[in-house]
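To: structure subgroup
Subject: Chain for Friday's discussion

All,

I'm putting the inputs and outputs inline so they're searchable in the archive.
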Amino acid sequence: MKIETQKPNIVRIAYHQEKGDPGYGSCLWAYFDFDLDRYMLNIQSDAGNAAYRWYETPATESFLHLMARIDDDYLINKLFKSEKVDVSSTVAEVREWLGIGEREDLRDDYLTQYEREEREEALEELEGLLEDVSESYVAVQKVLDDWNCDHGFDLDCVYENVMTDFTGWQKKIVQIFRDHIQPEIIRVEKEAAPHGQEG
């Protein structure tokens, strides 16, 4: 075992909401720590925590320059795994695989009116079941498998039709980064750059 004390080269940008700010209470405080040598972003906040480490490229681009140019989708996919089950999108996807959706390549034109109605009723039941467990991806997979077996639809790997989204706090962290932290990164980077140079 090896233990060592490190003193990283970090820039911290602090965020604090004040009464009267739009969305007050959604994230009262957050610290965004940028390790300039290790290309690591560490976020602590009252909404949740996140961290990610990028490949170091000091010869071609500084870490702050990288952080100044990234977009929301890139950042959220680096920091988080989408884990909140999107029930309506999941039901819509299963509807397609049952042959009663909008996609022509999956539509089953040979279903009788009774079979279509039976499948719509089963989907209503599924939506209710999923709403009860939507916070747990594993529970949703089990509900889908059980529902598939109970109705005899024989959908292969029905759990692969689970559609997920990022949670509200994950989206909030990325929104704070975009609206408040990135402009500050750009300002800090410009101040630190030699005259007329950036990145």
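Points worth raising on Friday:
The two ends are 37 Å apart (CA to CA).
Residues 81 and 166 are 7 Å apart (CA to CA).

D.
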